Amino acid sequence: MARLSTRTTPRVVPEPPPPRRTRTDPHELPEVTLSEDGEIRFLHLGTEWVQGSMWIDRPFEIELEYVQRMLAWLLFVEPDSVPKRRAMQLGLGAAALTKFHFKVLKMDTTAIEINPQVVAACRTWFKLPPDSARLRVILGDAAEVVAHAPFHGTVDALQVDLYDHEAAAPVLDSPAFYADCRALLTDAGAMTVNLFGRDASYERSLASITEAFGPEAVWAFRPTREGNTVVLALRTPQHLGRTELMLRAEAIQARWGLPATKWLRVFKPVAAA
Predict the structure, then answer these.
(1) Helix locations, the chain, DSSP H
(2) Does any domain span residue 6?
(3) Rounded Cα–Cα distance for residues 195 and 69 (Å)
C-alpha cells in the first residue's frame, strides 16, 4: 500500500477467469480497480489509495521508492548467494516485489494473497508470470501461512505489506504475528515491513517487531515523501561496518539497478537511534 493517487479515475478491472482457490474465503473482499498516469499503471482496492504500481513499458522494474527499500535485505547477504535463496511476499499488491525476486534476482519466490481479484489483475494487467517451478502464488490468509510449521525455517527474504482498502493500519501487526514471521526465516533470513512512519500506529508496530526479533536485530528507514517507512528485522543480528555496507550497496546498485547507496543515508539500526 502506498501513496494516494488522484491523477485519473480508477476503472474496474474486466473479470478474467478466476484463479484456482486453495481455501474458502469468508471475508467480503474489496473490488480491484486500475488507474493510469501516462507511463505508470496503478492498482487500487476500490479507493484512491495506491496498492501498487508498474511502469507500463518496464514491467519488471520497481517504480515506488518504498517498494525498492523493501529489498534492503540484500545489504545483509553476499550478492552471489542471492539466486540460491528463497523469497516470500505477504500481500501481492501489483506484484512488483514478486516479479523482481523471480525475474531479476532469479530466486525461488512465493506470494501469499487473500483476494483472488488481486491475483487475476496482476496476471492480466501487471505482467505477473504464470506459476512455475520457481514461482507460486498462493490464495490464502497470511496469518495462517506464517503459522504453518512446514514453512518455518525456509524463507530467506520475507516482505510484509498487509493493508486493507482503507489503509488505516496493517491488518496483521501483533507481536505473535511477527514471531511467526521470524519463525519462517532461515538463520540468515530477513523480514522487511511497510509501515506508515507518520501514523500513530507506527510506534506500536515497531514495538511489536522489536519484541519478536529483539532490538539489536531491527533497522528502519526514514519515511519516504509519501510517509511509508520500511522496517527490516534480521533473524540473526548482524553488526556490519559502514565500509562493508557501502561495498554491498555498490554491488547491489551495479547488479540490479537499485539505489542502494542512497539507502545508507536514511537507514539505521533502531537500537542506535
Answers:
(1) 65-69, 96-99, 116-125, 142-146, 175-184, 201-213, 242-256, 260-263
(2) no
(3) 12
Contact indicator for 186, 155 with CB cutoff of 8 Å:
yes
CA distances from 136 to 111, 139, 185, 196 (A): 6, 10, 18, 28
What tens digit of pLDDT does each residue of 1-37 get? 554 333 333 333 333 333 333 333 445 788 888 899 8
Residue 107 lies in a domain: yes
- Which spans in 24-157 are helix H? 65-69, 96-99, 116-125, 142-146
Look-up: residue for cell 486500475?
A: 34
* Angle between helix 175-184 and 201-213 (nearest 10): 50
Q: Which residues of 214-245 are buried (b: 16+ CB within 10 A; e: fewer)?
A: eeebbbbbebbeebbbbbbbbbeebeeeeeeb
Domain housing 83: 62-272
pLDDT score for 16 = 32
Residue 192: strand pairing partners: 159, 232
What gap in Å lies between CA 199 and CA 166, rounded to an integer? 14
Domain assignment of residue 53, yes or no? no
Residue 180 has pLDDT above 60, yes or no: yes
Give me the count of residues in the chain.
273
The residues, any chain, with a CB within 8 Å of residue 148's CB and separated by 6 or more, are none
What is d(CA 273, CA 263) in angstroms, rounded to the nearest whole number?
16
Total of domains in the chain: 1
Other beta carbons within 10 Å of 248: 20
Tell me if 47 is assigned to some domain: no
pLDDT of residue 226: 86
pTM for the model stands at: 0.87
pLDDT (average), residues 190-215: 89
- CATH number of 111's domain: 3.40.50.150
